[in-house]
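Hello Y.,

Per our agreement to keep a running log of every chain we model this quarter, I'm adding this entry. I've kept the format consistent with earlier entries: sequence first, then predicted structure.
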Amino acid sequence: MGAQCSSIGNLNNNEHLFQLCGSIPLNANDPAWNQLFSFNLQIPLSSLENHEIIEATAQLFQLLESNNQATRNTSSLLRVFLARATELKASAQCDNRIFIWQTCNALFMVRVIFSHWIRLEKEAVLIKKFSFQEENSCESLLENLAVQLVEILVDVPLKEETALLHRESVQTLMLLLFVAASSYLINNKSIIFKCLMHGPGALHAGLLTRTLLQHYCLQQSVPVRWLRKPEQGGSIVLGLATGLWSLLSRNSSATESVDDLSDFASQSLLLLLVLTNHCSTEKNWSNPYRQALLSFTDSQDPVQVSPVHPSACFRLDYSVLYSTLCDRLGDERTTLLLYMLLHQHQQFRNYVYTHADIQRMVIALLQELFNGDDQGSHHLYMSLIILLLLSEDEGFNSNIHNVVVRNPLWYTDRVLNEISLGGLAVLVIARTIQRNIVKASDKYLHTNCLATLANMAAHFRRLHPYTCQRLVSLLCTLNKRRTRVVQQIKSDAKGDAVAGASREELEQDLSILEEVLRMLLEILNAAFTHQLGCNQHLIYSVLHKREVLDVLRRQPAFQDIVANLDTVSNYFNSRISQLSEPGVNEILQSIQLGCVDFPKDQLKKFPELKFRYVEEDQPEEFFIPYVWSMVQSTSALCWSNDEITMGLDNETK
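Predicted structure for the entry above:
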């Protein structure tokens, strides 16, 4: 790149780059490094710009690869950067802009070279390529690089002069972690992970976790002008990022806005998710970043709680974190973070359960479920599992029926002028079940939906009439679908052709439908058993569609639970039949009065509906590919179309 290099077009003609890639060794003390690091090329901020740089340097990389075994210039480059990195904190304090600028350029060069090599080599080979050998020792420069990047993010303050350096550190560390993850999934081992989780890098695990989480919580603002300077001539200090802006801005994707390029908070969260979702089940050494994330304490809590793990050495304002999470649940990175905290961070979970503004979180989650057709399935699952985790708390299940939601505009099926938060939750979850049964028949999805409703059922109170209609309508729809599937199975048994489905598929559909029907009946029974006097509209809806009970009563799988619903239905139907002019208001009033004298002892006792979310036995098999799919889609790094899949998914086979 060099001092005269300011555009992609003349990269291949730059004498300083040819010196690096050529056949003549450069030692770490060579003055040529200062010239090499004094370039004015725009450091890429988007994946498109990174792709252009990778393509433009392909020829130079081939030259470097052919000569590097003899020259070891990549090792020398890395040693020069590492030496400079140890002085960065002092340089930032002294406002030495030229030194910071050149060091950032050096790191960018390391990242570009590393980006080429990770497409070709595994971790062990890269460790050897980036190593420094002396007479009796061999220094692992990549391990040192990982440690230095952590120290930069922790120790060097984030400000205008260092913003680009911070961003490059995040990007380069992400590349190192990708190489480590590829190795880890092959044989459960990784030199880089061991360094960061158990070696020198682990010393700063708590501080790095706090730093990244603070960037996210505070939505750390990094103005684009800190990363992209307007073109100015002459001074290399003011020309920190000048050369290629006009060219790249013409070619940048329209979807990559200025705000996206400077979204440092989201990139920090992405790095945190990568660090905390690997080595989570490692027996020989634990993940200190995960420990820190799942045990930090509330800085606003006057009671000082001793940390469970040594790495959990920091406190953070839970209220700020809670607010940020609620505001950004449309982002699946945020949803995954919230899932991790609710599932395994006991103190933060208790804080959420008792939060006075719980509707912010619940409404955001319900909105994601409502828009499920437009979201990736993993995001939908995570949102639903969070609701299931919330529903495990009886206080939460009770409180959501005391919160009134007015005119939720995102609920477009019909106008809801006023509805309880609990009623809205039941409505959206029931809608999700119906949509899933009709379109996808995803057993995992409807099982979690039903478990959430079941946890809430004993606390149903004053449900909106429309919510009650949809809940009972779902029961009717599923019953009709079950009847149709049974008829198809009978036709198949007689030898009649059934288009589009095998007998095995039909029997599987029948099993799913009966499971959902049974659970819905138990949910209605739980609501009537525990909250009969508070559910007049639900009783009314069941009476209005009581013919569905006549059908289900004849099925052995449902007879016991339908008997309870029959008891309720027959009792109130008897009272209503005595009305001379039974209008809606008169029927509801009769139901309300009848609840006082209802003989609850006639209802058969069923086990309490209580479900808890349990992770799979090997959670990493889901979460590692999921996290890297988010890296591929939301980071500014350049990934080839199949790189994530080839590097991660195929390694597990």
